[in-house]
Design a protein that fits this description.
Strand 3 and strand 4 form a beta hairpin. 30% of the residues are buried. The strands form 2 sheets. Strands 3, 4, 5, 6, 7, 8 and 9 form a 7-stranded mixed β-sheet that branches. Strands 1-2 form a two-stranded antiparallel sheet. It is built from 4 helices and 9 strands. By secondary structure, the protein is of the alpha+beta class.
Length: 177
């Protein structure tokens, strides 16, 4: 089923991540129901913690097309665990193995269109050894950005609003790893 299929089924969850029901993608993204549904984000950070892999979202995406975002991000499908979704999305979007990823935090994100329970993970990697194969339907480009480059891009409409806010939350946590 295509990722933008409005009939795709998502779990509806409470703020602790417990499944309370299900809804279609269209219902979750209609800007009215604001049904809380889980997503996964994976930040791939260089071993020296000075750069982070970002992806430029495909221009065909229905949300934030063409903007730079977390290395991997996607919805949890109904009947799928957060870990299963993380592994699937990492393979689908960038062709990478996320089995060594560590759960970092979870928070609620609300936009004018939807409400998500974001499950954030981090994976340390050596940029010179990481082979990334972006799926052209999902990702136009992927590359490591230095923390300085990321700071310089903030507020310019280059990064997704969620990424800008999420970095404030996760950078101190990454420093502690």
């Amino acid at each position: 089923m295509p990722k933008t299929d409005r009939a795709e089924i998502f779990p509806v969850v409470d703020t602790d991540g417990r499944v309370t029901g299900s809804a279609t993608r269209g219902q979750c993204h209609d800007g009215k129901s604001m049904l809380l549904h889980p997503v996964v984000h994976l930040h791939v950070v260089s071993n020296d913690k000075r750069s982070i892999l970002l992806q430029r979202r495909s221009l065909s995406k229905d949300i934030q097309p063409g903007r730079w975002d977390t290395a991997v991000g996607g919805h949890v499908d109904y009947g799928e665990s957060v870990d299963e979704a993380l592994q699937r999305e990492a393979r689908e979007e960038l062709g990478i193995d996320a089995s060594e990823a560590v759960a970092l935090c979870r928070y609620e994100w609300r936009s004018e269109r939807e409400r998500e329970l974001v499950n954030v993970h981090v994976l340390a990697a050596d940029p010179s050894e990481l082979t990334v194969t972006p799926d052209p339907d999902e990702v136009d480009e992927a590359r490591f950005w230095t923390l300085v480059e990321i700071e310089e891009a903030r507020g310019l409409g280059v990064l997704t609003p969620n990424l800008e806010r999420e970095l404030d939350r996760i950078l101190p946590l990454i420093e502690q790893l």
